[in-house]
Write a structure and sequence with these properties.
alpha/beta, Rossmann fold, Alpha-Beta Plaits, 2 domains, nine-stranded mixed sheet, 11 helices, elongated, binds iron/sulfur cluster
Length: 295
């Protein structure tokens, strides 16, 4: 079983479009949406949830007004300025400022503060028309997305091993933060999706640096390659210099949005288009690498 992770240096480059297209070309796969902060693969894959789990999120403190003797020790102790006296004169924790360090719980002389882990995050095992999908939703303001990504990937691996599936296809988060690191560690191949803009090139180079520091093989696809030919050429040169195979230059097309509106992958919407051909080339390369045992 091999893991393919589709990443982009920033959001909005077409990463999920590429992921969904690869899912529709591959067989024997588990799909895993690692972009837990802004999950959208479900819009194209239309998963039917089979199992739902709570992912325990950050600690959140709260004051029991009946126990509180209003000594204000907790207000002085909180480094995040998250405890205030409310309009009714009671000591209160402001949920969006609380960092869950639990110091207030320890300093309160009458044990009037309790901390509980948030239950606003959920993850799911679902069925889709292309196989099992593992995905999640995070509540507003929730953190620990890196840990949630690790949970999803672990479950995807279990499903793949149990069912002797050939590939796990991870739709990774954008950027190079904690959740991107969680998404790429231990993967067999990173497919970098980028677009020809100055920021696209800069973000792609940061992601390349990160991926190479983990010694993970990386290939690239330039999406909307025809919107800026000169930057596209700079990108191609950059990939050549880095020894990164450029698998496809995907042309700009309004069909991407039209397919999305219909909840279809581009391969389903326009199977014989230039766009689909470019994506087929990406999958053919991955498949060939697998057949030749180079992954
Ligand atoms: S848990 Fe930490 S951050 Fe939250 S209110 Fe208590 S001291 Fe402040
Ligand atoms: S430390 Fe405890 S008793 Fe004192 S104000 Fe805070 S919650 Fe109330």
């Amino acid at each position: 079983m091999k893991e393919i992770t589709i990443l982009s240096g920033k959001g909005g480059t077409g990463k999920t479009t590429v992921t969904a297209a690869l899912a529709s070309l591959a067989q024997n796969i588990v799909l895993c949406d690692n972009d837990v902060d802004a999950a959208d693969l479900h819009l194209l894959m239309k998963p039917v949830v089979q199992k739902e789990f709570v992912f325990a999120g950050a600690w959140q403190a709260s004051v029991n007004e009946k126990e509180c003797i209003q000594c204000n020790i907790c207000i002085d102790a909180c480094r995040f300025d998250a405890i205030k006296i409310n309009v009714n004169g009671f000591v209160e924790v402001q949920p969006f400022k609380c960092e869950g360090c639990r110091l207030c719980e320890k300093v309160c002389p009458v044990a009037a503060i309790d901390a509980e882990r948030s239950t606003n995050n959920h993850w799911y095992i679902s069925n889709t028309r292309y196989g099992t999908m593992v995905h999640a939703t995070m509540g507003p303001g929730e953190e620990n997305s890196g840990k949630l990504v690790s949970t999803l990937r672990k479950e995807a691996r279990r499903i793949a091993v149990d069912n002797e599936l050939e590939f796990i296809i991870n739709d990774g988060p954008p950027g190079i933060g904690c959740s991107a690191i969680s998404a790429l560690t231990g993967t067999n191949l990173v497919v970098l999706v980028t677009e020809p803009s100055k920021s696209g090139l800069m973000d792609a180079s940061r992601l390349v640096e990160l991926t190479q520091s983990f010694e993970i093989p990386i290939v690239a696809a330039i999406n909307k390659a025809d919107i800026n030919e000169s930057i596209c050429l700079s990108m191609e040169n950059y990939f050549v210099n880095q020894g990164i195979p450029l698998l496809a230059k995907i042309p700009f097309s309004k069909d991407v949005v039209k397919a999305m509106i219909q909840g279809e992958t581009i391969l389903e919407y326009k199977p014989y288009s230039e766009l689909s051909r470019a994506l087929i080339e990406v999958w053919d390369y991955i498949n060939m690498q697998q057949l030749e045992k180079k992954l």
